[in-house]
Amino acid sequence: MLNPQTPTIFRAAMADVWRHKRAAFGLVIWLFVILVAVERRYLQAVERMIFDVSVPYPYVLEWAVTLMGLALVPLIALPWHWLILCEANGAPSWQEAPGKLKRLALYLLHWVIYGLLITLAVVLPLVLIGGLLFLLGGDPLLDLVLLGPFNSGPGAGLLALVLWLPQIIAYGLAIAIFSYLYFRAAMGLPHIAVTGTALPMRQSWQWTAPLHRALLRTALAVTAVTLLLTLGPMWLDLVRPVDFETPRSDRQLVLVAAARIASEIALILGGAAVLSRVYAVSAPEQKPPVQDPKQT
Asked: Which one of 23, 76, 196, 270 has the minimum C-beta count within 10 Å?
């Protein structure tokens, strides 16, 4: 059992990552290299399409990037839950865990279900509000073009962030609400790692009820980090002439791809760390034993 007296859930989760930094690095590095290579190919194809109208849109690469991004979640989060919640209690390593494929499939399915339910129930209206703010605020990229000499370089990225401020506020509000509900309702995800079975959202909500104030603070911390990690790659992507007269170099494309994938992996690992910490301090003391999903 993890120590529930650590000052905040978020800090405790990040301490878990730091304490197991070698395991975390080994878990994500090969995924990072593969996805950066695929993302770079996709960005190169889009770049060619921009400067040559005869080049078709790279739908296959786009789907490859999307599907690999989805696969990242269980491939990172599930082994992390196992490391923190199971290995710490004497279970074998993830490589020797029983029923891994079934756990991975079940985890991905429920991650999608939780995300869709929370998004449709609460966050979608905020996204619509953000879209309305975007329409009222105009197109930041068009504004940059009209600004002439200020439309390229680091200043362009900073200026875009300022012009996008209403959308960023709406986006941050959506992330905060989503994160809070996710940490309250998604204990079924680490539960899959521990038991090989899912957990009803209602039971997850009951387990996390005593932590509702702590999870509000955690959601705000996650929101700040998420904004930083998502706006950073966007800024890098805007450090280029926005009139599309000069293609980006291969080095720039690799940098953008690496920033995007590193951001995505960091958010997944951080979310898994928070879920693991919340599960450890909210689930009943008598946790179900680690068992083979085939027997459940």
From this structure: 23
Distance CA 223, CA 138 (A): 25
Cα–Cα nearest to 141, from 125, 126, 152: 152
CA distance 114 to 272: 14
**What is the spatial distance between Cα 251 and Cα 214, in angstroms, rounded to a whole number?**
42
Which residue shows structure tokens 């690095």?
Answer: 25
Are 192 and 78 spatial neighbours (Cβ–Cβ below 8 Å)? yes
Q: What confidence tens digit (pLDDT) does each residue in 261-280 have? A: 998 999 999 999 999 999 99
What Rg value do the Cα atoms of the chain yield, rounded?
21
Q: How far apart are CA 40 and CA 210, in angstroms?
A: 45
41 vs 22: CA distance, rounded Å: 29
Q: Cβ–Cβ contacts within 10 Å for residue 166, how many?
A: 15
C-alpha span between 251 and 236 (Å, rounded): 12
The angle subtended at Cα 268 by Cα 163 and Cα 233, nearest 5°, is 30
How far is 115 from 174, CA to CA, in rounded Å?
A: 13
